[in-house]
Amino acid sequence: MSLFNVYPLFDITPAFAKDVFVYDTDGTKYLDLYGGHAVISIGHSHPHYIQAIQKQLNSIGFYSNSIQNPLQHTLANKLEAMSDCKDYQLFLCNSGAEANENALKLASFHTGKKKILAFKNSFHGRTSAAVAATDNKKIIAPINAQQEVDFVTLGDIQAVEAVLKQGDTCAVIIECIQGVGGLDEMPTAFYTAVAKLCKEYNTLLIADEVQSGFGRTGDFFAFQKHGITPDIISIAKGMGNGFPIGGIFIQPEIQPSFGMLGTTFGGNHLACAAAIAVLEVIAQQQLLSHAKDIATYFIEKTQSLPKLVTVKGRGLMLGLEFDFPVAELRKTLIYKHHIFTGNSKNPNLLRILPPLTIQKEHIDQLIAALQKEL
Ligand SMILES: Cc1ncc(COP(=O)(O)O)c(C=O)c1O
């Protein structure tokens, strides 16, 4: 059977990975500044992570959500302590799209309304409501187009109010730093004004932290810099360091009922063990402050690069915006310098999403390669 060909692939076959490096089947070593699309948080094949998953697999890997699973409580308590987001409830699922799908569904259940407000250049996933809230017509099938979504320019608070005023919007879904869209972020005043308007018009505020969460920006969540309290926070990617797990934090006033949300695989034993191990490593190795330190170094080092327009993002969710399209440069970095980087909707932006364990010497390696090519 052939594979359904939906991905343009680089001609590289990873066979082994360790910390910030990926090795292909010929033994070529690649520096991973892409993290498998912001997924690898604590580094590839971290020994504590491997041990935790192996140990769990030797006892019980999976049972459905019809029994007690103390690991879910352990994970919830650790998440609360480390994120400093108090009193939320946790629902576990398997991916970022699923997290957003459940968040939007919950907002609709809770408010009784059905429209969504999303932002231009957003990306929230490929399932029903999540893809409808994604600003990319190419990936929205007719069946998804039934969702009613208003797209507003990030930063345009008058436009947000004009939509919410109509009274039929169940949720505003926002990436505080846009990932796929190209790392745009607004000043704090915008986020606080959106949060205030959501309260005023009985609309839930969903912070999509699928990419920016779990310490990627140097804060546990990107929205925390702006001092807002979202009603729902969606998480995935870095949460499992490659093990598929996602979830939503849900404000206490949103009341659950049996059957309201559900999943077969979500929150299974193995997934919980992976996410708990990730949190333990983040704490032990102080990866949040480390991410901020490396970002400072990165910004300083990149200032000397020719053709650089600006450095975007924060922590280890970074982008180098050049004055030319970077597709060729990205290929050269992979095939000639053996460095993985990411792209975005902005053709001039090279995205840097490394494991949070990255060191200064790895940044130096990128800078040397860029100096040479530019
Ligand atoms: C901000 C954001 N939300 C949601 C998603 C969807 O996550 P998943 O691919 O796990 O469904 C992504 C994926 O890139 C993302 O960047």
From TrEMBL:
Highest rank taxon of the organism: Bacteria
Keyword Zinc tagged: no
Listed name of the protein: Acetylornithine aminotransferase
PANTHER family, per database record: ACETYLORNITHINE AMINOTRANSFERASE, MITOCHONDRIAL, AMINOTRANSFERASE CLASS III
Family assignment from sequence similarity: Belongs to the class-III pyridoxal-phosphate-dependent aminotransferase family.
Keywords: Aminotransferase, Pyridoxal phosphate, Transferase
Pfam families, per the entry: Aminotran_3 (PF00202)
Example GO molecular function: identical protein binding
Cofactor(s) required for function per UniProt: pyridoxal 5'-phosphate
Keyword Phosphoprotein: no
InterPro entries: Aminotrans_3, Aminotrans_3_PPA_site, Class-III_PLP-dep_AT, PyrdxlP-dep_Trfase, PyrdxlP-dep_Trfase_major, PyrdxlP-dep_Trfase_small
